[in-house]
Amino acid sequence: MASPKMLKLPEVLEEIEMSRAAFYRMRARGKAPKLIKLPNGQIRCRRTDLDAWWSKHEIAA
Length: 61
Description:
globular; Helix-turn-helix domain-containing protein; 3-stranded antiparallel beta sheet
């Protein structure tokens, strides 16, 4: 089984159209997508976690 797609933080920020500072404020409030910190200190987000976050915050138009 293939491992899930891991997005770098700049890719996540571009997709959700948000600045890094605003993202970290949202993360501090517990409202951001789940992130993973790698042993080298880099941050990643699983594609599935970001998709789940989008679904959770979707509002019917």
